Amino acid sequence: MRPLVFALFALFLSSSCKDNEPSGLADIELDEQYSGGKNATTFDLGQNAFGGQANGLTADQEGFFVTGNSFFRTNWVTAPASVQSLDGLGPIFNAFSCGSCHFKDGRAKPPGTPDEALNGLLFRLSIPGTDAYGGPLADPVYGGQLQDKSILNVENEARVRVSYQEIAGNYTDGSVFSLRQPIYEFVDLKYGPFPSGSMFSPRIAPQMPGLGLLEIIPEADILAFADENDSDQNGISGKANQVWDAELQQLVLGRFGWKANQPNLTQQTAGAFNGDIGITSNLFPQDHLSLTQQQQYRNIPNGGEPEISDDILRKVVRYTQTLAVPARREFDDATVLRGKFLFQQINCSGCHRPSMSTGSIGDIAALYNQKIWPYTDLLLHDMGPELADGRPDFLASGTEWRTAPLWGIGLIQTVNRHSFLLHDGRARNMEEAILWHGGEAEKSRDAFKKLNVSDRTALLKFVESL
Amino acid sequence: MKNKNSTLLLLLLVSTCFITCRDDSDSDAESLKKEALEQYANLVLANYDDSYNSTITLQQTIDAFLANPTDAGFQVCKTTWLDARNPYGQTEAFRFSSGPIDDADGPEGLINAWPMDENSIDYVQGQPNAGLINNPVAQPVISKQVLVGLNEILSETSIFTGWHAIEFLLWGQDLSTTGPGERPYTDYVVGAGGTAANQVRRGQYLQVVTELLLEHIAQVRDEWKPNGVYRNEFLNDKTSGEAMGLIFFGLKEFTKTELSGERMFVAIDVQDQEHEHSCFSDNTLNDLKMNLIGIKNVYFGIYTKVDGSSVSGRSFSEIVEKIDRTKADAVRTAFADAEAKTNAIPAPFDQSILNDTASISIGIDALKVLGNRLEAAGKAIGAEF
Predict the structure, then answer these.
(1) Model-level pTM?
(2) Are A261 and A135 in contact (CB under 8 A)?
(3) What are B36-83's pLDDT values in tens digits?
(4) A-side interface with B, Cβ within 8 Å?
(5) Residues B245, B249, B252, B255: what is their CA dihedral angle, to the nearest 10 degrees?
(6) How confident is the model at residue B24 (pLDDT cuts 50, 70, 90)?
(7) CA-based nearest residue to B152, from A93, A78, A119
């Protein structure tokens, strides 16, 4: 809208600012408010901001969205139940439905006190070594994931008590902040103690918009951005994960999950149904149980073989693929443009890559060849010892995490009524999330700490506008 | 000269009149909206009152049945459950409006959760010992505190309480291809002639969930009473545009996403016979009709009570007719069409899911049109959403 007016406005602002301080403003880029591209951006910016449907879908795809949405948010129940399409929960599980963690297709928050139950935070488990495909070696008793809930007459695996320790810090200008370091205590381990050398990784359920777009970024484009050995010596490497594709039975590029350990949305979704809800599929036909648990619960009825049909699974996957991204708010605001300038200047954009384009891959034509603004490179980066989980996941080391997409981040408060960020929800807001960045992001974080308060505010306002 | 002056004077007069007249009509329109919002609050309260009172009747018949379990008494319980579903079904039109039923701490998930985790409650086919009722070791006492407590640990939406829990305890699993569930009344008979185990605990469970249902309905109703927390906020703290926005967003969302999408399209798309809300009693089609009546109530500002009297007053429909006759006519036509098309779906719904998807599809299309037209009508009168 009215680019000339904006140009004049920006000119006016930049010239008037010059009188006060030598501050720069970033340009407004063409169509940058369409975060998910022209077809997959929603302007419904209320509580359903993460649940909008992409435009341009076929009638069939619109139907998939409705049914997929239903199976995403409806609770699964113990088998056998009258509603056969929704039975087969557990026997052990983390959640009753996808939507119970991704409420309103949004982001979960961690427990605030030790007695609060987990609701959207789960723990991956492994022991030293790798499995046959180079992935984490699952705990022999508890498997690759701790399930804290169970159906009636079955023992859950454990409870996790989460507490926090405050760590004080200060900005260069002397103002102070406090970060909270999570502390996890595993109690009531029903199937015996963890073996020595056991590793765990906390993972919070992230928001869902735009996943279908990230799935069809051409692989070459992601790899072109990788710089594993930091040959340009800017302190930022960027490594592509290589993970096992259970359908193709080969190693492929990892795109999804906090450590980019999932190759595509079908495997991500089927894996979550299996590990999180206890629902089997043709891709993962066994419940997530150890040999001992399988023996112990062999008489527990299942909800069919598999419990989720290929047809319904496909519709849930289509749903996740066609969730639109909320449009930018205040993208033309002067403070936001100042923040955008700083975001580039202190090189947040070195990993949070602003823009890329989708290819023409898959069968959802509406998502083809869209210029999108996800603010991620989908690559792994060393984030320093403070954020490290110490648990390797395929090529991701114990200190590496995938750059989290930032689109939609400013609407988590609107959709989910909280502002907790990072893989375990330790950051209480955006500012704390930035201050936790270490490793390859240390330079950028230190530069942020050196900014004066109005520039820090501008940078935060820019990220809020995403 | 004289002529010119009088023309000017006339112009001045006309324009003054025009300005003041427009002011008058603006403030008229605003007061009409205020009246219609007041009437909405009145009919919401009357509807929840009816829902509460009919649930009291259900509770009384359940208590009487449990004191002296007979087949006739059991049938009365089922009838009063079906009767009580009618006013409740109409209240569903108040959902998705950020009101007390389903705002952040609203009890909707405890009142009307679906699907039921039936074998967390009682026996099911092939599992005579399933459910909390049949597990006196793990849960020695069945009480409100126990059910509410279990719920808090597990989930925001209940698998232990609500309409469909009571329905399951009255009808049992629907294993029939043609009729509803066939739980025998003897499941509540202690001693000779009794069927299934733990009859006393089953009776306790039935009483406890009915009591919880009453409490949760009362919680919502009380917020709509004169000087109730939400009623005050709704009528006094919001502009008419905001308040109408909540109502019309809710109508659109309920009609399109929930009724035509979630409750009808998904059922025929998945082709699961029991993917229906009242699957134990086969009351789903009647639920849908009540939902549609509820939507009409809100738009036309009239609620017909269970006793036959009606609560009427200023309506949104009148305002739409004043402002945009074409849109008003379009909504009327869409209501008539949606009613005709949903009435044409053969009962029971679970058979139509499998054998008559065409008539359900026609109903879905009619409801989508209705939802779109309600949205347009709401926006035409200044509903902000």
Answers:
(1) 0.87
(2) yes
(3) 999 999 999 999 999 999 999 999 999 999 999 999 999 999 999 999
(4) 63, 66-67, 69-70, 74-75, 77-86, 89, 96, 100, 117, 149, 151-153, 301, 312, 315, 417
(5) -120
(6) low
(7) A119
